[in-house]
Design goal:
Elements (H helix, E strand, L loop, with lengths): L2 H19 L8 H11 L6 H12 L8 H18 L9 E2 L2 E2 L1 H5 L1 H19 L8 H15 L4 H11 L26 H30 L4 H28 L2 H4 L5 H4 L5 H5 L1 H22 L6 H10 L3
Antiparallel strand pairs: 1-2
Bound molecules: geranylgeranyl diphosphate.
The site of geranylgeranyl diphosphate has 17 residues, from helix 4, helix 8, helix 9 and helix 10.
């Protein structure tokens, strides 16, 4: 099967699973369930659950029984997009080529749709699974939650906002965290900016992608060596994914991306191309791609699409 066939067939089965397991739109109160379905079922590359499928497959697992659990990654990712698009954060009205959830359902519902998707995700992850050691399932749940908590995705988002000069609306906080006070980008040296940038990328984007590879491995029966290689693969891929996203933000149009292009520059965001230049960003992506490919080889397995997925992510145009 070619990679594009593999991606298309997995997207199809992920979409089918999401559609079947999200509460029907007429579940009371309908507005929240319609909003959840609007946000999740409106397209998207489904990269995170596809990485998890490829990881589980490489470990020799049968995928069908794991699909609902792996789809939880897409609920979490969609929640982060819905919340990120809200007016106090990115204030965006275009996502996946359509109006953002809060534009269609209102700001309050945008908040609540995100909350509901996050909660739903953990209920899917906790569903009983035959053939999987409950200790591995528990470890997988812990892995996903720590990837997106205040030391993971949320922490990365906070650091990103802070670096872009974010000022909270309403009364100013009486106290800023010691580690952040007085450390806006303009005050800092290039070296410390680069490590801040890596902190943002690894946390905001990278950790959920790493957790996707590890979740697939844990539910798919990975050996210790495979799990370590999956973690390294996810770390390299996660960082590369965000650098590529930053490059696309400056190089591609909103139509190609299905979301507003050029926002990073407009918002003064700290990005790899802005800090170190487009050529340096591209060469870092190539280095990370090699790292991901080496680890894909170590994982081995009967069917292994991890390497072509890494090439696809590192070379994508939208
Ligand atoms: C919880 C508010 C909140 C934020 C957490 C992940 C995140 C931080 C914000 C989402 C917006 C953003 C710019 C995330 C960076 C990761 C990224 C490039 C997301 C886009 O992911 P794709 O390209 O999107 O996989 P599709 O639409 O294909 O699913």
């Amino acid at each position: 099967m070619t990679l594009s066939e593999y991606l298309a067939s997995n997207r199809e089965r992920l979409d089918r699973t999401l559609d079947a397991h999200l509460p029907p739109a007429d579940t009371p109160p309908p507005v929240i369930h319609e909003g959840m379905r609007y946000a999740v079922l409106g397209g998207g590359k489904r990269i995170r659950p596809i990485v998890a499928i490829a990881a589980a497959e490489a470990c020799g697992a049968e995928i069908e029984p794991l699909l609902v659990h792996l789809c939880a990654l897409e609920l979490i990712h969609t929640y982060s997009l819905v919340h990120d698009d809200l007016p106090p954060l990115d204030n965006d009205d275009l996502r996946r080529g359509r109006k953002t959830t809060h534009v269609v359902y209102g700001e309050a519902m945008g908040i609540l749709v995100g909350d509901a998707l996050l909660t739903e995700a953990f209920s899917w992850l906790a569903r009983p699974l035959t053939g999987v050691d409950p200790a591995h399932q528990l470890r997988a749940i812990a892995e996903v939650s720590s990837a997106i908590d205040s030391t993971g995705m949320i922490g990365g988002q906070v650091a990103d906002l802070w670096n872009a000069g974010f000022q909270p609306a309403g009364p100013q906080p009486s106290r800023l965290p010691e580690s952040l006070a007085g450390q806006r980008p303009a005050d800092r040296q290039a070296g410390s900016l680069r490590s801040e940038l890596e902190f943002i990328h690894r946390n905001k984007t990278g950790k959920l992608i790493t957790a996707s590879a590890v979740l697939g491995g844990l539910l798919g029966g990975a050996s210790g060596d495979q799990l370590a290689a999956l973690r390294n693969y996810g770390n390299a891929l996660g960082l590369a994914f965000q650098i590529v996203d930053d490059l696309l933000d400056i190089e591609e149009s909103s139509t190609t991306l299905g979301k507003t292009a050029g926002k990073d520059v407009a918002q003064g965001k700290l990005t790899w191309p802005a800090l170190l230049g487009v050529e340096s960003a591209r060469s870092e992506v190539r280095r990370l791609e090699r790292e991901a490919l080496e680890n894909a080889d170590i994982i081995g397995g009967p069917v292994n699409y991890l390497a072509p997925i890494a090439r696809f992510i590192c070379e994508r145009r939208h």
